[in-house]
Design brief:
Blueprint lengths: L1 H12 L1 H28 L15 H19 L1 H15 L1 H5 L6 H19 L1 H13 L5 H28 L3 H25 L1 H7 L3 H9 L2 E3 H21 L6 H22 L5 E3 L10 H7 L6 E5 L6 H17 L3 E5 L18 E5 L2 E5 L4 H12 L23 H24 L1
Parallel strand pairs: 3-4
Antiparallel strand pairs: 1-2, 3-5, 5-6
Length: 433
């Protein structure tokens, strides 16, 4: 308890934490105001595009862009708070005093992580204010999908805290730790870029980067493998920091322990990637086929293989993968997808006789189709599986249109929020003096 109290005092004394709090308001406000304005116009505000908003979901139209401000804060602001809390003890000499206490290094780093998560929850009050404003405007709130978005950004913050702690533990100076942390973040962006161009195993690895993870949670899809990988990576990073914060232990021993930790973490993460359970918590079932189609697909037995002759940058491949095959994978775990192309853009493969073909194979039967929509994929799967398609797929989700502008949001996020943060920060500073 004394260590928790000490770390909390360190957090509220850090200028980086107050910068994070002050910036969260305008960041969330800018995203929220823009999202609500777009949502209102699409819903028929001022007579523009009346009726289009009937197909809108607040999850994609409001919550995803609003909470994206949390992703920016987690990437560019939260690491400095974490580095300040972890590396500050080494710079001030407090770490040597803590090492004299009968407490494991893992317990110390876990305490710092808990305090940092508490600080992030305090900063997340800004998007909570956006939720309250949306409710005041009369907007619909579906709790499961909102919880999914919050969970995704909480896991993203945990990954950032773990990464910042690991870099602060291994480096001698906070500035070095900051550079290493941002380099690792940029590295995940590079993986996403290479995956979009080359596909293959790069694409499978990119599915577990923070950007891809947050994107799936923001669309109401909770995947067990992504959840486990995020938790394992965060825990491994914190244990790595705990190893290197034992400054009295020889570097060789800490290096061997880090190598063993990396091997165990790799094995655990590799096993977690094979988890196939997932939950679609979006109100409009955006990540799933209609219930009737899923019931029909559930009657299919055997291994289904899909061979698509499409380049990684072909828009048809995006439609096929994101809007059809990912939904199919959730219903048919025994599914193998193979993409075949000679180039990454496919521009000069259009004259190839087989380019654009999508082959479905099941039980010795093969069916070819060039349609990449969800409806076309279902038709081909039913054909190759010799399963009768359902007659009625259920009612269409009509959405929750709301033609209301974001009144008062600018005053809240650009005026009241910074003023409250400045007032509380000043009061804390005077009390500490």
């Amino acid at each position: 308890m004394w260590l928790l109290a000490k770390e909390w005092r360190e957090l509220v004394a850090a200028r980086a934490f107050w910068v994070l709090l002050a910036a969260m308001g305008p960041l969330v406000g800018f995203a929220f105001i823009g999202a609500v304005q777009t949502y209102a116009e699409a819903s028929g505000f001022n007579g523009t595009a009346a009726g289009v908003g009937e197909a809108f979901s607040p999850l994609v139209g409001v919550w995803a862009p609003t909470f994206s401000a949390c992703e920016l804060a987690a990437v560019f602001l939260l690491p400095f708070v974490g580095i300040r809390l972890v590396a500050g003890d080494r710079q001030s000499g407090a770490l040597k005093l803590e090492l004299q206490q009968p407490m494991s290094s893992a317990a110390r780093i876990a305490t710092k992580a808990l305090i940092l998560m508490a600080g992030w929850i305090v900063a997340s009050l800004a998007p909570l204010v956006a939720v309250v404003l949306w409710r005041i405007y009369g907007g619909a709130i579906y709790a499961p999908e909102l919880a999914s978005v919050a969970l995704g950004h909480l896991l993203n913050a945990a990954l950032t805290i773990g990464l910042a702690a690991a870099m602060a533990g291994i480096s001698e100076h906070p500035s070095t730790a900051a550079i290493l942390t941002l380099s690792a973040t940029v590295g995940t962006w590079i993986v996403n870029f290479v995956a979009a161009v080359n596909g293959g195993w790069w694409e499978r690895a990119a599915a577990y980067t923070p950007t891809a993870m947050v994107a799936e949670f923001q669309h109401g899809l909770i995947r067990l493998d992504v959840l486990l990988v995020a938790i394992l990576l965060s825990a491994a990073a914190l244990l790595f920091a705990a190893i290197w914060l034992r400054i009295g232990v020889r570097v060789r021993r800490r290096g061997l322990e880090s190598a063993a930790l990396a091997a165990l973490a790799a094995l655990a993460i590799g096993a977690a990637t094979h988890a196939t359970r997932s939950w679609d918590v979006s109100e409009d079932r955006a990540n799933s086929f209609p219930v009737a189609d899923e019931a029909a697909l559930g009657r299919i037995r055997g291994h289904l293989s899909v061979e698509a002759h499409l380049a990684p940058e072909d828009p048809r491949r995006f439609d096929l993968d994101r809007r059809a095959l990912r939904k199919l994978k959730r219903v048919l775990p025994d599914l193998t997808v193979t993409y075949i192309s000679a180039t990454s853009i496919g521009l000069f493969e259009q004259n190839s006789p087989h380019y654009g073909e999508v082959w479905y194979a099941l039980g010795g039967r093969r069916v070819m189709s060039r349609v990449t929509t969800a409806e076309g994929v279902l038709e081909a799967v039913y054909d190759v599986a010799q399963v009768a398609p359902p007659g009625d797929t259920g009612t269409l989700f009509r959405g929750h249109p709301l033609a209301v502008p974001p009144r008062g949001a600018a005053w809240v996020f650009y005026g009241i929020w910074p003023a409250v943060v400045a007032g509380v920060g000043l009061a804390v500073y005077r009390r500490r003096r």
